[in-house]
Fold each of these.
Amino acid sequence: MAESDRAIVIGGGIGGLAAAAALHRRGWGVTVLERARSLEPVGAAISLAPNALRALDVLGIGEEIRDLAAWQGDGGLRTARGRWLSRSSAEAAAARFGGPLVLLPRATLVDRLAALLPAGAVRTAAAATLADPGDGRRPARVGTGDEELEAELVVGADGINSRVRTALFPDHPGPEYAGFTTWRMLIPVPGVDFAPHETWGRGRIWGTHPLKDGRVYAYAAAMTPAGGRAPDDEKAELLRLFGDWHDPIPAVLAAARPEDVLRHDVHHIVTPLPAYHAGRVALLGDAAHAMPPTLGQGGNQAIEDAVVLAHHSRDLGAYTAARLPRTTAITRQAVRAARLNMAASPAVVAVRDTVIAALSKAAPALLLRGFDGIADWRPPYAAGETIER
């Protein structure tokens, strides 16, 4: 690879930073253009399954991220009144998939990924526009308003409303509303002890998980028209929707301040893109395959994308071939999961809960089976592989 080969990553989120770090390890000169004034991530926490942790092994930070694992003992799925429908454990998950599930603040992961890049590689307050995707004979061009940059590779990691995706595939319908909105918070909740759980109600879900730093990550979702907002504040809305659910949900809500609560409508890409590349430009993460959060795989798949893209950085057709079928299948599985856990019909919910409880008694690892073929993924090259530059 020539020393002059440059890669421009548009978007400084988790997927963009992971791609920049992976490309840097393979000898590319990397520039990350982030339109926000800082790398402070949107969102509270992220769950990393063993598949993403193996990808982070390629970047050299897998083990230190695994050290942040907090889930110990039992956890599982509950009803709004607190009855356990299914239970599992950290040990069972690690045994099945060859590693732990790690929950950590998004800011922690962003900081660790950014630290893998050389000084000056990340430019904030730098809105970027794809001017020319390039081809086999000419480089791609990216405009920043003040200047135009050329690169042998451009990575569109600019999120669900990706302008890079629109430039490459202007006829694609783009993301659609998934039918529900989410709330998230990351707060201290002193004196509250609980097993990690997700709780399914009628058209509503709640999750409560402890982090290793002592804080609690809580999230919620509810079926609602797009664009809605609480008439007062989002904490009050959560109290109306979940305030009478089982412990420790009331205690978590009591500890939260209105400003702690983030709310975002969920959109996803229903119609798969025809490819994840065009010319010298590749898409990854939500820009390529935004999915509902029901499997917790959005960020995980972006990290997978990053290391696979670096591996196939000289053959973007191979990148599409490796990633499009897998991420399309996982997106569809996440949509099916959303239909199940966001079901609102009382009759459907009653049948759902009865079937899950019965199957869980017969097969305790029921919930884990849903991640077969996902969490056991391994990257296309091993950590520490010698890379020719």
Amino acid sequence: MNDERSDKGRAVPSGRLSRLGAFGRLAAGVGGGVVAEGARRLAAGERPRMGDLLLTPANATRVADQLAHLRGAAMKLGQMISMDAGDMLPPELATILSRLRNDAHHMPPPQLNTVLTAAWGRDWRRRFAHFQAHPIAAASIGQVHRAHLPDGRELAIKVQYPGVMQSIDADVDNVATLLRVSGLLPKELDIAPLLDEAKRQLHEEADYLREGAMMTRYRDLLAGEPAFVVPELDPDLTTPNVLAMSYVAGVPIETLETADQSVRDDAMHSLIALVLRELLDWGLMQTDPNFANYRWQPETGRIVLLDFGAARPVAPATAAGYRRLLAAGLSGERDAVRAAAIAAGFLGEAAAARHRPLVDAMIDVILGELNRPGPFDFGDRAFVGVVREQGIEMARDRATWHLPPADTLFVQRKISGTALLAARLKARVDIRAMVAGRV
């Protein structure tokens, strides 16, 4: 959920035809950009590849702008691509796509009133002593407003954009089609199971009754935990597309960048410990690591946890696969890591066989970093470039592309996002000691 205080009200396309038309305009715009860029390069004596013509800053801007306008599943998928690709995207494209994590339009007042009237009735304003019309945050699926009840309680109210639930399946299919047409995905790669799982999770995220239940479950699991605070659900005002909870003050987690090293280290130690508990103890994980889902309370030193729509069970087999992989990493045995990575579905057997030297080189780099004595320095990213180059070389062999199981992908998204935050804060955490007692 992104802070959104600028005046960027823009109605969300809620009908099927209007959203389909938006995708059509997007495809036409990208196509026009390809023609223009191709003509420019040909005139300069170059022979560009289609991939080069599609992956231009101008086309990335078109995609980012249109997805930000559509919101819903379309924007959510764009956010996931921009975050999950991490260091693998060209810098200029990563910068543009990152706008989807930081840039969202909000509903204009008439559209907001229509949504709240449908949820609470025509006299909904009488329920509140004050309801702030301008949202304090806006994101892919909904926007958040502050409100005061007559009894003095302060609430945060998340209001879902109209048409989000109904457009999920079509949006996912349309984004997948854009990826296919662009040539970014090889025809041999079967992404149907992943698309089905993405649709299922997005439907779950759009169900605010379910999110409220998950928020309450996390609040119970973390009761008495001094490192975290979770908002309290207001069930009387919560509906399938309006989520009401206690307002919990906090500042963006990124503000910790200027805090003392020990404060940053302690915060990331708590967040990494939480990931381990989710994966290995609870069998339940909030799988969306967007930085905006964490807030920091300087006065208490606590981390505010927000947005539980992506909370989902972790299959026992997935947890067991990670446990074996962690144990192999602690052993420092390259062969054990490779075997565990294949068994868990991280690495395809074809890629491991055809690119054995590259795979082993990547494993050696990672083992060398993780098994250094003392805390792991997330701020030292020198090894990332080495691993990235080896990964890109393997990725050129599209015949060996491999999709891990969907459950593993969602878990890994949380792990990778947590590592990105630790890198942003330049935290130092003794990962080896944290893991050693759990596998």
Amino acid sequence: MRTRILVAALAVVLLLAGCSSGGTRDDGRVTLRFQSLAWQKESVEVNEELVEEWNATHPDVRVEYVQGSWDSVHDQLLTSFEGGEAPDIVHDASDDLADFAHGGHLADLTDLLPERLKSDIPPSGWQTVTFGDGVYGVPFLQEPRVLIANATWLKESGVRVPTPGHPWSWAEFRQVTDRLAGDGKYGVAWPLREPVSATLNLSLSAGGRLFHRDADGKVTVRFEEGDEVVPRTVHEQVNTDRSASPTTLGSGGSDTLPGFFAGTYAMVPLGFSYRQQIVQQAPEGFDWQVLPAPAGTGGLTQGVSPQTLSVAQDCPYKEEAVAFLDFLLQPRNMVRLALGDWMLPTGSRALADPALRTAEHGWATGTALAAHLRPAPAQTVRGYPEWKDKVATPALQEYYSGAIGLDELRKRLEEDGNPVLARYQR
């Protein structure tokens, strides 16, 4: 009987240890698990190097690097949170944090963050990780959407080349793509397999808002004049002007690059980080350049969902975890992370680094857009993932392909979409 009791007790201890987010070794050293979603070779190398540098100078707090994946990260994290096996330090994106924050899975970092980090990242950045009265992550990398253009094609066409100081309007952008198209070639290829984020974020430039929050905090969808500009532009380019390729609407960004290199499309709207793939894959002698996305009544404003670092609520060593974040996001380290991912840092000091302001590969154009980045419209909308998947994605796909008109798109987004959001706000 005594033996069975001891065995049972040991099993409980081992079970509890297995469910712990973090732990200590027999020598008292703290071990923290950091799950990174870095996937590009340069980015993975930088993350691993920084972990090694921390471990070399912090013998009492060891960080264990865990390689994660962006594929189905939400479901993976939810399972690990509910199973008590979540990593101590969580890499994610700000538009994925709302349900985790409201569900009590992430630690409120308000009183744990060092003043240096608080002041270095602008308020617009902190807005992306603030839910209610709490701060549930640190935004550290972000990327605007830009136009990657065939520089030779633009030069030969004689069109005005936009700059951050003098961008195209959405109407001018449509005129330019129409001028560039013809003979089986297109002025632009829109990769819109995932159309919702691109549409909503770019619509801020035209004064779009879509999600409206009342005094009680409840959110409803209203598809108004500013929300129409971007989707209508894409729809007309594809279906009226024939200046945008209809075959890329169901494609991802990488899928458009072979056609871009082959001279089938003059421009492709892509996230800033795609420049790395272009550098790696472009044929020798291919001349390309980075242009700002078109501007509207809201100027160059566009929404972003920065990559974030959070601490699990179950982590027993929150102060140590935040100390590691403070090290990881020192300005010099934030620059290294940004260069590794070909993205922009959120920190003001890192953003001012000369390495990120060179004309080569369009870095200077990207940093010029940083001041215009705002939290994505869906940032704090509970129920957004379901609304996006079940309502907005199919509606926008049908509209862009010409299967439905603007009035039907509005009806689908509002009348079909608002009941979905309402279930999350009771």
Amino acid sequence: MEHITLLIGIVIVTALVFDFTNGFHDTANAMATTISTGALKPRIAVAMSAVLNLVGAFLSVEVAKTISGGIIDETAGIRPEVIFAGLVGAIVWNLVTWLAGLPSSSSHALFGGLIGATLVSVGASGVHGGAVVMKVLIPAVAAPIVAGLASMAATRLTYRLARNRDEAETAKGYRAGQIASAALVSLAHGTNDAQKTMGVITLALITGGVVAPHADPPLWVIASAGLAIALGTYLGGWRIIRTMGKGITDIQPPQGFAAQTGAAATILASSHLGFALSTTQVCSGSVMGSGLGRKGGVVRWSTAGRMVIAWGLTLPAAGLVAAGAALLADQGDWGIATVAVLALAVCGAIWLASRRKPVDHTNVNEGPAVEPAGVVTAALQTVSPPPAGPVGTAPAPAVATIPAPTVADAPLADPVGVAAPVIAAPVAAHPHETHTAKLRAKAGSAAG
């Protein structure tokens, strides 16, 4: 076995940087609903998620094997610079979608980057097309639908079981349940997403001759990947947490509990089967399902539509960036250095742009403005009218809006105002009007 070269070391560091971005990009998967409903304070939520991501990284290596030897043919002449270019494409796309606050898939960004770089450097023979279809594309379509349907059914069942209970009391219980289900999602996220970086590092070690083909990730690879994703999770991707917690639908504690439980079950099952699915798509589908499952709950389809577009663009966009990086990296040391400098410049520019309107734990629950009701929203509200008020509150009284009188109506207008209360404070009369009224009163009494 050869020693780790400088290039392989660069690839390992870049892979850990991607793992870090994966952590703060996907924090919303586990904690967005928990934070938006107030079940946990933002800082406590991300700290708990970080610890459980680290624990989850040690529970399985099935997904790592899918990455290191399933999608890319490790015997087709894959070189470390190809993996480096693929990671650059994934990192850039992760940061672009993070800046936009869109919960896109870090997993698909990684797959797209690796596939794009491999196609440019090696050709189609370096990609296992069947594995891409069976273990990436089909789960990408099926997972959010399955999770959404499960979450919708769980939400309806939850509200049905608690329909005769006091809503304020049940909300407390569901918030406690949310903490447990969020912990389960975080653990599942560690078993799935942290392993993807392990697989990339293992692939780099195999291509460099450091470990044997089809080998399991070494222990130090597992530990470093787990620490990187945990650190990224603790810093928190507040922009995406805001979108998932407030931008898709208005989540109440029963919905949050149902969404997180459905997502955790889907992710854990896929990890056991070795499917490297997108935890972001699973959790986003669960949130949308919970919005449809509550009577009167409405999904903000414009936000959901932007998310779906980002999902569709992730594979090709990351692949294009990685393909360009691979073309440069193939030119030798100066090409690799150029790719590194350009990547740092792009990442720095994105970070500076994010500072213009920062989002952190202090304002993460200040959700975006509610979009106007569209055709789909109006139709859903017609079939299933929304509740009169939030959980545990009485319906708000209706307030009629009466237009203010125009200039032409001024002589006939009520001096106090049409919409003023009947018990409005009396207005002091003019002295001349008071004297005239007294004379009329005396004349009336004399005539009587």
